[in-house]
């Protein structure tokens, strides 16, 4: 498993967390390339956790007769146990997020040869219920050959120029998302005013070095690594697996500048949306939102319904719940404190809204994602 992408680095953190109570575990790390087979044959590990996107390498591993768990659903007909995110739900989350920005045009950048990329694209398109422009470029996971990279970025340039704008572009992961942002900068296409870019993995290197910084869908990669290690331990000790797949949904969208836009043309609705985003924890009444505009409540509510297909209260609850998800995973606060930080009057009120929206309780959600 290489460490050149954020997803793998986070998966390794989860593997490390699992191994802390297993002091006899010794690790060796290598990128999943065919030239790694020779030293694997010499070392003879007891088990392998691999980011298996190279078909030749994956097939050769099978000849070693060693327990293997894969952490990517990149290859068709791979018969190893799998721990990876639920890719259809990644595409669904991307579609709902970009659509909620008020955009009308959508596109996708990804590698049509890779199974998970196809799954994300298919779900993205299905959730939107409309045609989506596709730019098929190879990313496995980052292009090493300068000639292929030039060809891919040149294809991206021609494709971008033809797209209607403003447009929301969902990328298969943060690597092509950053390259897309670079091409936009080169072509003087404004991000996010003309092109809104959303990646996947929340790879801090790619997201922060991008200009502008990238918004990205956060994947429970550490939890995936933890569960992959647990599956491998069972395989190595001869315990039958209860399930050969672990595919949790994505966590949330981490918002940065590449999506910092409300694509609706209505300035009154923009003012209301910005106020909700910045003051969701303090809002006691929807009238406070209405006061940020020159409209009456009924008129503003009608515009929300027309442009966003949501009420102001729905938008407010979505913002509060998104923040609650973040705190449940990344903080040590109890539920009462989280409820207060998110603008709910009680933990019971938060739990009620959370379960209605996500079909699980806050405690169940935290158990699913926390390592």
Short key terms for the protein model shown above:
single chain, 371 residues, alpha/beta, Rossmann fold, Arc Repressor Mutant, subunit A, 3 domains, two-stranded parallel ribbon, 16 helices
β-strand number: 10
What radius of gyration results from the CA coordinates? 22 Å
Note the run of SSEs as H and E: HHEHEEHEHEHEHEHEHEEHHHHHHH
**pLDDT < 50 stretches:** none
Envelope shape: globular
What portion of residues is helical?
40-55%
Distance between the termini: 20 Å
**Proportion of residues in extended strands:** 5-15%
Instruction: Provide the number of structural domains.
Output: 3
Mean pLDDT: 90
Going by CATH, the homologous superfamily of the largest domain would be: Response regulator
Largest β-sheet summary: 6 strands, mixed
Strand order of the largest sheet: 5-4-6-7-8-10
- What is the CATH topology descriptor of the largest domain? Rossmann fold
Instruction: Return the CATH architecture of the largest domain.
Output: 3-Layer(aba) Sandwich
Q: Helical element count?
A: 16
CATH class of the largest domain: Alpha Beta
> What is the structural class?
alpha/beta
Pfam families: HTH_18, Peripla_BP_3
GO molecular function: DNA-binding transcription factor activity; transcription cis-regulatory region binding
Domain HTH araC/xylS-type: 270-368
Protein name: LacI family transcriptional regulator
What does this protein look like?
This is LacI family transcriptional regulator. One of its GO terms (molecular function) is transcription cis-regulatory region binding. Keywords: DNA-binding, Transcription, Transcription regulation. Residues 270-368 form the HTH araC/xylS-type domain. The protein is an alpha/beta fold. It has three domains: 5-85 and 221-249, Response regulator (Rossmann fold), CATH 3.40.50.2300; 87-219 and 254-259, Response regulator (Rossmann fold); 267-369, Arc Repressor Mutant, subunit A. Helices cover 50% and strands 10% of the residues. Strands 5-4-6-7-8-10 form a six-stranded mixed β-sheet, with helices on both faces. Strand 6 (167-171), helix 7 and strand 7 (195-200) form a beta-alpha-beta unit. The chain starts with 5 loop residues before the first helix and ends with a helix.
